[in-house]
Write a structure and sequence with these properties.
Blueprint: H1 3-14, H2 19-26, H3 30-39, H4 50-63, H5 67-74, H6 78-87, H7 105-116, H8 122-129, H9 133-144
Amino acid sequence: MTSQVLEKVRKMTVAGVRQRQIARIVGVHRNSIFRAQRKLRLSACQPLPTATRRRIRYLLRRKRWGTSRIAKHLGISEYQVREIAKRSGFERRPGEIGWRSHLSPDVYAKLVDEIQRHQNPASEISRKYGLPHKLILRLAHAVLGSGPFRTGVPSRTAPLSSDWPQREKPAVIRRE
């Protein structure tokens, strides 16, 4: 790149113009703009304007949109939206879709015991403990070492039963 083009890249980067737009204006690939910015010791990631950050917080709080949807709607990267959400203290509430559950050792032991006794279907166990259904199924597969569970009327099939062989003895399961 010529010194004139580099100067143009420097001015546009400092002005907050995005790499794609700079590449279109200069007539080169976006990766070339990235290399030029690195050569000029400039950061390619410019901070988002205050209005955009406010809009992201509004969409997270009022509309309850996810980061992917907000990023697509505003035409920015999902990473930037996640960073603003993280800095603003947005987290999933316990029991909400997408919430990561961290089981205490006593709850974990109760779950394993209930699964081994085939007492209730996974859906009832998840409701009883307020945990995601998928988490209960993953734990049940790890504990019982079985294939797909039978579905159907609970009175006809034992809860958490499978056509595949299951472990006879309690398994020592590594916690996730």
